[in-house]
DNA sequence: CTGTTAGCGCATTCAT
DNA sequence: ATGAATGCGCTAACAG
């Protein structure tokens, strides 16, 4: 006879109407303090919990947000997800997670399906076409992370700044011919970083030696090693840390010492960057913070009322100087 | 006037009653092929999507499952989550993810809140008390991963087997005095592995040298280094890979060569185990598979009907012989 | 095989 | 400030 306790049970216990109980939770100020007390009391005593489905049915809101990532096994994403989920928690939302497995088609389908089950979406490093993203944005509040599309809210990273810091760092160490190992050309951030590298290297009067595009994996980095050897460079900038780690690994197998023969700089500052041997010089990007920020922003977008939310953020990046970069072997002694 | 298209719109378009439309989706065989065709057609034309909230309200089911992890930033969990989510996807469920931040109190609260929003739960490496887990199981279908509690379904790993393989491996390499670096004593799997190590080492007639308990982090592993040095051992078994990596790192700083002076064996086979230098000898456990299996099992538990689901699984573990373990320095030449 | 009726639990008019 | 009535979209009996 018990079943889940409903709003009517509480109403009966507090000797009021269901409507008043409802008000007590939604607009407490619109109910007399005394009766409010009585109702809250009864609710607590009966351990009443509003039925989400019923609320949903009537309000059209679910209290859920959706998180979409290309691949949770990619060490870049767990922190981002953690940031989103944590903030969602604080704001009273539950988070639905979807992994698209880097499959563009799946991504579109999954996002479409997911969008109908949530009040808003956070897409991490979305692979979808700009137009699809814009279309999606029409239907649900939407925030992108690590992807920029005109007209869509986004939390991005200052990649140009990060790349610039890498370039200045390597230049200061006396490097002149610098290789760039790119990620997949289908990746938005790879394109951005690649372009930034080309621009910055040119601006600083250094020689860019393009090494090519490789899979953004440890093995992808490894397979770049031969080309790096052939490129006659003293330093290499790599699309991301995982690839950089792979490159260092393979270079070492070839008998090349990193950093003594060749300096290597990664990107992302994943946890393992500092644990590897030697620890990787890289660019730190605030992943978890980005997640939290994106969620905060999404919350503002979902707010029925509220002021116009502040503009999307572009988070700072920071070079972390560790063990895989040193003064160029051929460089003149410091002081020149 | 359009709004979301409802079951009545479809009914009108197909000139049938709403009930028939409903049946067409739930029990297609109970409706005439001709009309079914007509309805499906209309539904497709109108792009009808059933309203989940309404379905939920009536069936009491949400179509969601909950995933709880202690810390997504711990490299152990993303794969597990990926396995769960992927299988959930296939089975038609959406996955709600919660990160408890290793906070026992939060875990209880979050799980309680989450449990009312889902049809079933998968808890990864739950920290909660046995009794709470049993209580939870009364309310919702529940599957544990990497934790065993009497009366609760679970997917576990054959830790005893994994530890036994480590011991045999080290014994074969001529090691006699072997250190064991434990994780936090609050961790279920740490206790299990510790106990297994003690038992196996004894059985093989080797000397166990307990190094102590440390945080299950890179720094935790590092801080075990001094004690390892003092322990006069030729090999160390470590609770998990992250710690093992930290230990190797710090040992190296002390001028100790791994594996030449001391062999180190980790556990878990996280991605970075094979990327580190030297690559870590460790025990592989099928994390993603465990996730998928747990989800399959949960599905069976949630099935209103269906046969009694097969018993929970205990997945095999496998030693992966890589670069941090070699023949003991003091060992007599092979062949003795 | 199909339509009719009823109601899931709640938020929201509109009265009072 | 509170209550009675209505319906969100759908499924589950029961008739026909």
Automatic annotation (TrEMBL), chains A, B:
The keyword Electron transport does not apply. GO terms for molecular function: DNA-binding transcription factor activity; transcription cis-regulatory region binding. The keyword DNA-binding applies. Keywords: DNA-binding, Transcription, Transcription regulation. This is LacI family transcriptional regulator. Residues 5-59 form the HTH lacI-type domain. It comes from the Bacteria. Pfam families: LacI, Peripla_BP_3.
């Amino acid at each position: 006879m018990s079943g889940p306790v409903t709003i009517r049970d509480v109403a009966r216990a507090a000797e009021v109407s269901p409507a008043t109980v409802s008000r007590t939770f939604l607009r407490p100020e619109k109910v007399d303090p005394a009766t409010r007390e009585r109702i809250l009391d009864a609710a607590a005593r009966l351990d009443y919990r509003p039925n989400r489905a019923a609320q949903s049915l009537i309000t059209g809101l679910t209290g859920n947000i959706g998180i979409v990532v290309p691949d949770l096994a990619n060490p870049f994403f767990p922190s981002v997800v953690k940031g989103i989920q944590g903030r969602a928690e604080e704001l009273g939302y539950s988070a639905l997670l979807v992994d698209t497995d880097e499959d563009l088609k799946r991504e579109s389908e999954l996002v479409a399906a997911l969008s109908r089950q949530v009040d808003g979406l956070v897409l991490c490093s979305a692979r979808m076409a700009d137009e699809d993203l814009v279309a999606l944005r029409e239907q649900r509040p939407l925030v992108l992370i690590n992807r920029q599309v005109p007209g869509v809210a986004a939390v991005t990273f200052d990649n140009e700044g990060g790349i610039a810091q890498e370039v200045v760092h390597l230049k200061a160490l006396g490097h002149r011919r610098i290789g760039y190992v790119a990620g997949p050309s289908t990746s938005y951030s790879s394109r951005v970083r690649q372009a930034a590298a080309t621009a910055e290297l040119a601006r600083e009067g250094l020689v860019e030696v393009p090494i090519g595009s490789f899979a953004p994996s440890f093995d992808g980095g490894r397979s770049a090693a031969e080309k790096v050897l052939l490129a006659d460079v003293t330093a290499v900038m790599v699309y991301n840390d995982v690839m950089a780690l792979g490159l260092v690994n393979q270079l070492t197998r070839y008998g090349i010492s990193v950093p003594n023969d060749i300096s290597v700089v990664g990107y992302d500052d994943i946890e393992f960057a500092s644990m590897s041997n030697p620890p990787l010089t890289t660019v730190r990007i605030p992943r978890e913070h980005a997640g939290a920020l994106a969620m905060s922003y999404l919350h503002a977008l979902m707010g029925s009322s509220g002021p116009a939310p502040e503009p999307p953020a572009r988070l700072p990046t920071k070079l972390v100087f560790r063990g895989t970069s040193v003064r160029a072997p051929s460089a003149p002694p410091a002081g020149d």
